[in-house]
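Running this now, will post back.
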Amino acid sequence: MPVYEYTALNTRGKTVSGIIDAESAQSARQKLRGTDVYPVSIKETHQTSVEKTSWLSGFSRSLIRVKPAEISMMTRQLATLVGAGFPLVSALDTLIPYTKSQGFKRVLAQIKDAIVEGNSFAAALSGYTGIFSPVYINMVRAGESSGTLEIVLDRLADITEKQQALNSRIKSALAYPVLMALIGILVLFFLLTFIVPSIASIFSDMGKSLPMPTQILITISNFFKSFWWIIGILGAGALAALMQARKTEKGRYHWDRTLLRMPGIGILIKKLAVARFARTMGSLLENGVTMLSALDIVQNIVGNVLLSQAIYQAAEEVGKGQGLGASLAATDRFPGLSIQMILVGEQSGELEAMLNKIADVYENEVEATVMSLTSLLEPLMILVMAVVVGFIVLSICLPIFEMNELIR
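Update: finished.
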């Protein structure tokens, strides 16, 4: 059924917009008038079957960006409606008008339309891999196969909500240090580029040799004043080169290896990846996904090439009959505690529950590590700023002290 995007006036004369599905534009107008909404313009946004298979359609879909919070909210609401007995199509039809993002509205309408045409929910979602992750699609597929779609949707909502909560806590903890660093850099740049040169011109008129700290400060200031644009170009070029290198397989490998070897940060990245691995793996196994299929899915979501390779190697050993814990231990990439807990889970027959416990443990450790790092970072930044500003003040004051001595 075609999907139409409309702009209309309600009974109060206020302009409203949204999407609606109908057999034709005339039917869409009639449906809108039946809800006391009077359309001003209607245009079709539904894609035909030919368009769905074209590369241009795939490119346009890749441009759609949906916030994880919107997906999480939609998943939770959909699980509630399906659990209450709503058919899937009716549940989606109920959610569409309450979706804020116009792009996401169109996506949900097209997914609903694909289901009406006879596709499964997972098959409809697989056309939007830029929005719905492989984990999401495979868990929905497993839920549909086992007849437990509402339970799977609830678990998906739990996973996305926990990941968002962890990301939000990390971002909020890092927000203040990052802001202070940016402000400090801007202040120093302003001092060296505009304030110091005007003061240095006074000292140059004295015709006397200046103290070494003052000479160093004036040299740095002149460099910033004359070549600040070169610094900007070099910085932007280095950033662009780094981003381009990360897009290559070799560059991404070296970048991820460097991150894992960095003191403090490497441990944090590994714990975060293990938490993501365990949470996703546990949810997939709980919903009937086989071990090998689950390993194939999670190796693409850990966010680190070296750990992805370790999971791939472990999957090969599991395919030969080895246990998950022993296979991961042979890679020497995963923390010892996680290996031990997986081994205990395999021996007790509670591997899924143990994986979720591993995720809880490492998510808590990540949060604690971030908080401790930021608590150390703030006084360190203050100390660095104090040393730099003190050097500037000392470099300016030394010639003044010498002038006072000459006057006496």
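The beta strands are 3-9, 15-21, 38-44. More later if anyone needs it.
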